[in-house]
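Below is how a single chain appears once it has passed through the pipeline. First comes the sequence as given, then the structure the pipeline wrote out for it. We keep one example in the README because the format questions we get most often are answered faster by looking than by reading.
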Amino acid sequence: MMTMLAILFCTDAAMAQGKGKGKNEQIENAANKGAEKANEMKGKGKAKAEEMKAKRKQKVDEMTGNGKGKADEMKGKGKAKAEEAKSAGQEKGAEMAEEGKAKGEKAKGNGKGKENKGKGNAYGKNKGDLKGKEFGQERAKQAKMNKEKKEKELDDEISESEGKVKEAKEKIKESKDKLEKEKKESKRYRVQRENGEDRKS
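Resulting structure:
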């Protein structure tokens, strides 16, 4: 009976050892699978982070390009209009100088009088009840007012253009700041992930 007890005891111990070895192998296999899965997910996470970083950079580059282009366009329009107004003012001045020369020669009394039928605005034909010097002074006053009005319009337009340029520069700055913030956030997330920490927002 003792022998049977000893055989029975040894058989149970051997079976228990066999079961333990099987469990250890299963645990080891599960741990290996878990490590492989973790490495795979880590690789996918890095690829996704790089993809997002590239997309953000492309978007910021597009926004920066659009903002600079718009600012340059507005600046160019403002300069073109200013030049146009300046040349128009010079042309008008040259016309008035020509008129003055023509009137001066006519007044000298070349003897030709009304033969000169040059192009002009005929400002003096409808004087109303004004005469001579009074009419000239009133006409000069009107011309001065027109000039001041045009200059004011140009100044307003230039100010508006400069405002748009400033606004475009602010948008560019905001985009750069946002990109920088996203880069820092991405870097922080990457460091946390490499250290095995969860991402905290």
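The helical segments are 2-108, 132-194.

See the next section for the split statistics.
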